[in-house]
Amino acid sequence: MSELYRLIHAEKANHPVVLLCRVRKVARSSYYAWRGGEAARRERQVADDALAHEITVLHIASRHTYGVPRIHAELRRLGRRVNRKRVARVLRERDIRGVTRRKRRSLTRPDAKAKPAPDLIGRDCHAERPGTKLVGDITYLPTAEGWLYLARWLDLATREVVGYAMADHHRAELVVDALDMAHGRGGPEPGCVIHSDRGSEYTSAQFRERIGKFGLRQSCGRTGSCFDNAAAESFWALLEEEIGARTWPDRATARAEVFTFSETFCNRRRLRKHKTFGYLTPAETRQRHQHALAA
């Protein structure tokens, strides 16, 4: 109807409004009501354009990954009071979209001779405080030189990447190096649960020796069940959405990208909805936990 009213408004200099409304079979009162709201519509359009600019900046800063929930949370963090449905409408009208996830090939190769550790997490992907539950897994990134394998440990209390390692193989040394980094950062407490799948890297004597040295407890999910290590699988899906959709020219370039993603974006910029604190970055979540313990 707006197009029809605009046509009448454009032709009213040449023909009477009464005649135009009669020909177009619309009520004059409806046309005058539309004309009376024109100023409000222009003002609303200007406001939407300004909001769209803010959303575009936040979307680019998120590496083109944020959808409606996190864009809305970022706007609220910046003091912008805006309805979530309005944010969704502006995103839809400007065709701004978050990333979508794709399937990946599993690297889990269980060692038939090794006795796996019991599952100490039981699909409970929450922890009351940092350093009590870490989950780990291995993924791979394509480069022109071959695969780059990445092992990572994630703290369930904060979803912070506390340790990671990269190499051109996925032997036991890879997950041990990642655990050494997590321990060097002062992450896991004595008795911390270290959860993973039943891949041969995690059931190796070398990895178990390092866990015993640090005074940690090993936990393993069942073979073939991605839900037993859902937090780690979810993180890989996120990483591959953002940086794993292309082939890097060499492993050094891919390493630099992983470092930037882990240390800069994931730990310090990416918002996650905490069940108690709301939308915070992993680093902010850790600080909240530390303040709560100090209090």
Present the secondary structure layout.
Layout: H1 2-11, H2 17-24, H3 28-36, H4 38-61, H5 68-77, H6 84-93, E1 133-143, E2 146-155, E3 160-167, H7 172-184, E4 193-196, H8 205-214, E5 217-220, H9 230-243, H10 251-268, E6 272-274, E7 278-280, H11 282-294
Parallel strand pairs: 1-4, 4-5
Antiparallel strand pairs: 1-2, 2-3, 6-7
Helix pairs in contact: 1-2, 5-6, 7-8
What structural class should be given to the helix and strand makeup? alpha/beta
Number of helices, where a helix is a run of at least 4 consecutive DSSP H or I residues:
11
How many strands, which pairing sense, and closed or not: the largest β-sheet? 5 strands, mixed
Through-space gap between termini: 61 Å
H and E string: HHHHHHEEEHEHEHHEEH
Number of strands: 7
Given the C-alpha coordinates, what overall shape results?
elongated
Low-confidence runs of at least 5 consecutive residues: none
The percent of residues in helical segments reads: 40-55%
Widest β-sheet, arrangement of strands: 3-2-1-4-5
Note the beta-strand portion. 5-15%
Query: What's the average pLDDT?
Result: 81
User: From the alpha-carbon coordinates, what is the Rg to the nearest angstrom?
Assistant: 27 Å
Region (Disordered): 101-125
Function: Involved in the transposition of the insertion sequence.
Domain Integrase catalytic: 126-290
Biased composition (Basic and acidic residues): 108-125
General description of the model:
The mean pLDDT is 81. By secondary structure, the chain is of the alpha/beta class. It contains 11 helices and 7 strands. Helix 8 links the parallel strand 4 and strand 5. The radius of gyration is 27 Å and the shape is elongated.
